[in-house]
Structure formats: structure tokens, C-alpha cells
Amino acid sequence: MANARTPESVAETKQALAEASYLADEPAALVSFLAQRLGKPILVEGPAGVGKTELAKALSRASGRELIRLQCYEGLDEAKALYEWNYRKQLLRIQAGGEAGWEDVHGDIFSEEFLLERPLMQAIASAEPVVLLIDEIDKTDQEFEAMLLELLSDFQITIPELGQVAASSMPIVVLTSNNSRELTEALKRRCLYLWLDYPELEREMEIVRLHAPDLPEALARRLVEVVRMVRDLDLKKPPSIAETIDWARTLLLMGAEDIDRETFEQSMSIIVKHRTDIDLVAERVGMKLSAPQAG
Amino acid sequence: MSPTASPYGQRADAGPPGLAPKLLGFCEELRGEGVAVGTSEILDAFAALEQVPWESQDDFREALAATIAKSQEDRRLFELLFERWFFRAAEAEAIEREVAEEGERHEGAERLDIDELREQIRQAIVEGNDGEMRDLARLAIAAFGREGEGSGVVGVDVQRIRRTLELTAGPQPQAEGTDGAAERPPIDRDQLNRFERHLRRELERDLIERTETLPPSRPLAELDRALPTSPTQDLAAVHRAVSQMKRRLATLGHEQRGRKRAQTVDVRRTMRASLETGGVPMHLRYRPKRPRRPEIYVLCDVSTSVTSASVFFLSVLHALHDSFRKLRSFVFIERISEVTEIFEHERDFTAIAKRVSSEGGVADVSGYTDYGRVWLEFLAEISEDLDPRSTVIVLGDARTNGREPHAEVFAQVAERAGRLFWLNPEPKLYWNYGDSVMAAYERWCDGAFECWTTRHLENFVNIVAGGVPAAE
Predict the structure, then answer these.
(1) Would you state the pLDDT for residue B250?
(2) Residues A55 and A185 placed together within one structural domain of the fold
(3) Which of A137, B254, B363, B450 has its CA at 20 to 30 Å from residue B269's CA atom?
(4) Which domain holds residue B18?
């Protein structure tokens, strides 16, 4: 499994992802395949909790590459994402240098030894090819996006004091976005686009069965159906795949044999996490489930 | 649009052969619909196509989509056009060569009993067999066509056929005649949708063959953005309109804050700051600009002529609740009644429409709008709450059905409120024709707008939230 070569076909990618316990649908497998063949970054968008981040992790497991993750947030800047000069070490060097001339010191303190590598730099400088995950890019500001452009199209970073640092190996780059703001055209232009949505019934069943193998099939089906019913409501936060899996595990622990109204109301808080949503779900979905006696 | 961009014009020869010109034409048309397809995207698309097998429809489409359509909105347009460009090719060729499938295509249908067909289709849907579904869809269309119920409108026919076949999502009713032991497996929505897609494709194919023309390539962008006209319309469309508007309104405030012009000096703070410089006001202090968050009163005509537009409008305003300090909504026909609460509790568009019409209690006897009486009631009951900071919005066609318009009462309302806007769901052309008394009211309004597309609506919300009025 741990081979860093590029896959030959879409089916192979899909297979590799499945072995890394990620059940990709056709588009996801195809885009992952293209990203590796063409060396282009993937921009993954979709609602929260459909496995965007998980895709990157699975890619890293499937291709045997190390995963380097950059979690984005408002106010993230170059110093935390790219590189920073280790000024304390630089100060020490200047003090320790003592009688050496300024010229020597000047040339010395701006060398790679004094560079603190941050995730993006790490990904570029790594000798082994890696998977670089830039998570929730929509949380940063546009300036940061602009800074990424050089990295994404040429896989290189320009450091004024050192010049250009080009990638020694080609990383697979995955950017995720929750679509909370429109990304710039320039960024999108450089990426392959993948929209991940909630999976279809059958695929979600498979996912649940993969992560909770002890769950009986009938119950798993029931569970996925109920989750879909809940998603169809207009909720503040619809349940994600991760929550479906959590719920499946909870049901296992509870030793439930069927999802009746009582079990549902007891464990509902695992998939619905908003007070107004809970009311709505209890009213709309809870009522449809049979009472415990009947079930 | 240039003639090369139209794939199905009267062009005698199909242009240069090969995929490249075809793909370029496709991208050209996408650009025409407002999708930003750059040269780099096209190059990527070609590079991607080199990597996937072309015989798989899905791979081909997904590879193109991943490189060309880079947002969900783009993807939607992509799907619409893709079908026409790449999978109508066979039909286009057939028309050109005047080939038609001979009568034998529906041969099976003559013998097939409708009940049997129903069972077979159920079976195919449950199994999810695409080829089978397609063939059965053809049979169903043929069987249906024999009964002479076809309306010629694809969308209508799809639903009629589905109903005739008694196909619904969810658990299936027991099969008649059996002893109840053989329970039918349930059909889920996705599977049913897939069958409907087949039906639609086949119907369209039929239509193409009958009329010997391909569906016209029309600018999708404009058509898609008219206001929903029926309450059953896709809720997703409402959400899309709202989310776009929300995004624009959110950035609107920032533009305003960045602008230095037209600021007011805060005298008190300037004097306080001048103490540092011995009482000489060296530094001017300005009042901070705050986004205007008005108190809004919306009055909606819900008589049959304008219901859907107004309910849509109301739900949009409620979705935009963050932009307003306080929002109260009223509906009226002959009387006026407050419905703010319904919108706070109900989230489903159709449910709202239903509750508004059943609980509003605004229709009296005739069910025709009585504007005069509405103003009198509004003035008597609500107007005490109005102050100069409040904005009143009226949505209606100003058709009084010949009753007294009471424009002077309306003027009093306008005077008490800070601002008063009128939105008319009719195009401006129809104002003041027939029983429309728009002119009588318009002179008291701070603005009267026609409002029948989402763009009109968006423009208007901009204005209310403190933006610059866009040019008409």
C-alpha cells in the first residue's frame, strides 16, 4: 500500500482509497486521480461533515505519504503558515560571533539554519512527497489566498533573503472550504474543483457498516433512513456523516435492536445539536417512528 | 452570440471535426451564461481528458466539471449545457440525415398491460438498472401516449406518467390480488428521481423527433432568475436567492465604513480631544459610521392575484432578519392582520403559504383587495408604533377593485413612518391601467419599484439596508 507512485486508473485510486477506509464516490475518486496525474491542487467544497478533511487523510494513507496540515483561521499570516526567521537564534549568533565582521554575520544569519519552517514550507522542502492539507481556506482573508497562489501553481516559495525555494518533491495539495465566503477566481483557477455532498443512501450504508461493522444490516439501513429524514428538514445544522457514525456506535452501546421513538429521543442529541433543531426533529421525525410497544 | 456558439443552428456543416472545436464551443457557451472559463481552465480540461477513458460517460463529465465548473452555481449551468452539447449529438445527427426510428420502437407497448408495466418499472427502479429503466420509460411513454393524455409539455407529462404509474417515494402499497405476503420493497427518492430523469430524456427525445428541431439554446441565466410564481416552487431556489443576497448585503456595510466622505464631525469628542492641544481642535473626531439597521413593517397583499410573489417576498425578508433591527409583517386583503409569528416558527415555504392563507383571517366577504379599508385599519391599530426610524414597505398591485383608495389616509401613514416604499409585482407598463391606482399612492412614497425578479428584489433590499439606490 505504501507506494508513492501515481495510480494508473480511476479504479485503482478508488480501490486504494477504499483500502484506506474511505469510500469515495465516482467524482471524488476521479478528481483524486486527476490531481495525482496532473499535479494540480484539489479544492473541495461542501457542507460541514461530508468527509472533506477525511479525503485528504485517506489520500495520505492510500499513497503512503506523510500528511501536513495547515488549519486556517482568521488572521493567519505568513509567519505562521510559511516560514519565520528564528530571531532569537539570530540574536545569539550575533552575540556569539563577537569579533567577526558584520559582513560575515549578515550573510550567515539569513541562511536556512535560522529559518523556522511552517507547514507550507515543510511541505515544499520535504524530501519525501507529502499530502498538504489546507483546511477551511474560506476562514482566512483574501491576502492569504493571494499568498498561496505562487505555491499552488508553481510549488515554490519566494523568500526575499534567500530567493526562490522550489519543491524538491511534488506534494498533493487539498484545500477544503465550507463555502462561507466566495473564494477568489485566481485561486479557483489553479485548482481542480470537487463538490462533496451528503452521500446517497447505499453509500452511506456502506460507510456506516465500514465504521461500525457490528451493527446489524437492518438497523444500519433504518439508521441511515432516519438520518436522511432529518437532513431533509430545514435545520440549522444537518447531521454529518461523522455524526451518523457516532450515532451508529451509540446504538451499538445501547444495545438497541430497532430505532423506535424512545431510543430516538434518548440518543437524538448525537445527531442534532441545536435547541431549535431538536424541537423540530422531535416533532417531525420522532412522530413518524413507531412507539416502543408497537416496535 | 456568434453563430459558432450555437450548436444546433441551420449550419450545414458541423464545423471542423474532432473534439477540440466542440469543447471550445462548449466553453464559449458557458462563458455566455456567465461562467468564468479561462484559457487555463480549458488547457486543464484537455490535460484531464487525456487521463480518463472516454467511453465512460461519468468519467468524461466529471473530468470536465472538475476543471471547468468551479462552484455549485457553475456546476448547475454546466450540467444543463453539457447534456445539450454532448448527448444531443446523436439526435442532432439524426435530424440532419433525416433518420427517424421506425414504428417498431414501441412495438412492445401494444401488448403490454399497464399493470404489468407498473410492476416491471417498480422492479427496475428498485434494482437500479439504468438500461432497463430507459427501455421501460419508453414503453411507459408509448402506453401513455396511446391514451391520448400527452400534453406536449415535457415537465407536465413526466409528472402525469409518474402518477398514472402510481409511483411514489417511500413504502409501497400492497400489490392487489396477492395475499399480502409478498411485500414490495420501498422506493427511495433518489431512485425515483433517476427514473424520472430517464422519462424526461426519452420524452425530450420524442419531442425532438416529432418537431425535428432541437431545443433552442437560450440564455439560461435570465430565465432562471424570475421570482417564483407558485408556492410549490423549489425551496432551494428561494435559499439560493437569499444566500446570494446575504453575501452581498454583508459586504455592503464594509464598503460604507471604508469611505471617508460625507462623515459627520462628533463635536463632543472633538472638544474632548482638543484638551490635549490646549483647547485648539487640532484633530477632528468623526461619528463612526454604523450600518443602518431599520425597523421594518412589511404589508403584503395576499389576494389571489399576487399571493405567491408576496409570500416569497416575505420569506426572503425573514431570512434576512439579521440585516434588520426589527421586522413585523402583515398580510391584507380586505382587512389587515399580523403574521410575524408564523414566519418565526414555520420554516417551510409551502407551509408558510398555507398558514398565511388559512390563519391570516384577512378575507372578509368578497376576497377582493380593499386598500382604503386596510389603510384605515393600519392607521388605527399600528401607526402608534411607527417612528421616524421605521421603514414601511408595501407589496401590492394597487388594484382597488373599484373601491375608495383613501389616499389621504395612506398619506398619514407615510408621514408617521420614516420611509415608505411600494413594491409592485406588476411591470411598470401595467401601472395605472384598469383599476390600478398606483399614481395616487406613488406620490406619498419615498420610492415605488416594480419587483418581479430576484434582481429587482435584491436591488431593493440593498436600498433598505442603507445602500445606494441602483439606477433603474
Answers:
(1) 55
(2) yes
(3) B254
(4) 3-87
Q: What is the pLDDT of residue A274?
A: 80
Domain termination site, one of A173, A195, A217? A195
Cell of B183: 411485500
| CB contact (8 A) between residue B67 and residue A181 | no
**Contacts of B201 by beta carbon, 8 Å cutoff, 6+ apart:** B134, B137
Cell numbers representing residue A267 in the block:
440518543
B334 & B432 share domain: yes
Enclosing H/E stretch for A85: strand A83-85
CA B334 to each of CA A239, B374, B377: distance values in angstroms, whole numbers, following the listed order = 44, 6, 10
C-alpha dist (Å) from residue B228 to B14, B240, B305: 38, 12, 14
* pLDDT tens string B28-83: 888 877 788 888 899 999 999 888 887 777 788 889 999 998 887 788 778 877 87
Q: Are residues B371 and B269 in the same domain?
A: no
Question: Which residues of chain A make contact with B76, given a CB cutoff of 8 A?
Answer: none
C-beta atoms of B190 and A201 within 8 A: yes
User: Which of A9, A189, A194 has its CB closest to that of B40?
Assistant: A189
Q: Which of B59, B70, B71 minimises the CB distance to A30?
A: B59
Per-residue DSSP letter, A149 = H
A105 interface with B at CB cutoff 8 Å = no
Which single residue is written with the C-alpha cell 416502543? A292
Measured between beta carbons, the chain B residues lying within 8 angstroms of A10 are 52, 59
Same structural domain, A132 and A69: yes
> CB within 8 A of B388, min separation 6: which ones?
B417, B418
What is residue B426's DSSP assignment? S
Collect all residues of chain A within an 8 Å Cβ-Cβ radius of residue B36. 185
Question: What mean pLDDT is reported for chain B?
Answer: 71
Crossing angle (nearest 10°) for helices A10-19 and A52-63? 100
Find which of B62, B75, B344 to mutate to test the A interface (most A CBs within 10 Å of its CB). B62
Q: What DSSP assignment string belongs to B275-331?
A: GGGTT---S--BPPP-----EEEEEEE-STTTHHHHHHHHHHHHHTGGG-SEEEEEE
Chain A interface, best mutation among B71, B190, B245, B346, by max A CB count within 10 A:
B71
Model confidence pLDDT, tens digit, residues B149-191:
556 566 677 777 777 777 776 666 555 444 444 456 667 777 7
Can you tell me the distance from the alpha carbon of B59 to that of B52, in angstroms, rounded to the nearest whole number?
Answer: 7
The alpha carbon of residue B57 is apart from the nearest alpha carbon of chain A, in Å, by 11
- If asked whether residues A16 and A132 sit together in one domain, one would say yes
Which of B47, B51, B247 shows the shortest C-beta gap to A182? B247
- Those residues of chain B that have pLDDT short of 50 are 1-15, 102-109, 176-182, 218-234, 252-259, 469-472
Judge if B308 and B345 occupy the same domain.
yes
Q: Find the CB nearest A200 among B36, B70, B190.
A: B190
B390 and B249 in one domain? yes
B374 within some domain? yes
Question: Is this model's pTM higher than 0.80 or not?
Answer: no
DSSP secondary structure letters along A187-255: HHHTSEEEE--PPPHHHHHHHHHHH-TTS-HHHHHHHHHHHHHHHHS--SS---HHHHHHHHHHHHHHT
The verdict on A150 touching B (C-beta cutoff 8 Å) is no
CB A184 within 8 A of CB A147: no
